[in-house]
Amino acid sequence: MEGMDIAKLIGDYGFPIVMAVGLGYFIYFIWKFIGEHIDPALGDMHMALIRVIDKTRMLDQDMIRLQQKVNVVLEYRAVQKIIEKAQKERELESLKEQLNTSHVGKMKANNEETGHDAKKN
Predict the structure, then answer these.
(1) What is the pTM of this model?
(2) Residue 57 lies in a domain
(3) pLDDT, tens digit (0-9, with 9 covering 90-100), for 64-77
(4) Domain for residue 121, yes or no?
(5) Closest by alpha carbon to 38, among 30, 50, 26?
(6) What is the per-residue pLDDT across 77-97, written as a single tens digit (0 to 9) for each?
(7) In Å, how far are 20, 97, 98, 100, 102 from 117, measured between CA atoms?
(8) Whole-number mean pLDDT of the chain?
(9) Residue 16 sits in which domain range?
């Protein structure tokens, strides 16, 4: 048989038999290609996917920790603002009291000089 003459094979064995053998070879070739090239690549990709998932989980955990820290800082700021506001209000009240006492003192002194009673005004 020189170079596998397909016409002679079809003549000797029939078209369905020759096509079944050809299809069998095609399936064998695909099976071998997948086993040699695709499966190892899939294994490598699977490992890469596992590494990416692990890194994503680590980043997610880091983001959760950072968010908790930001929340704590924001809470401290809010408390600090409330404390500062209360201190300013106390200082303002203290200044008002000082102003009132100095103003009342000046009015008493002024009334004593003029001879008027502070309760009449």
Answers:
(1) 0.47
(2) yes
(3) 999 999 999 999 99
(4) no
(5) 30
(6) 999 999 999 999 999 999 888
(7) 129, 22, 22, 18, 17
(8) 88
(9) 6-114
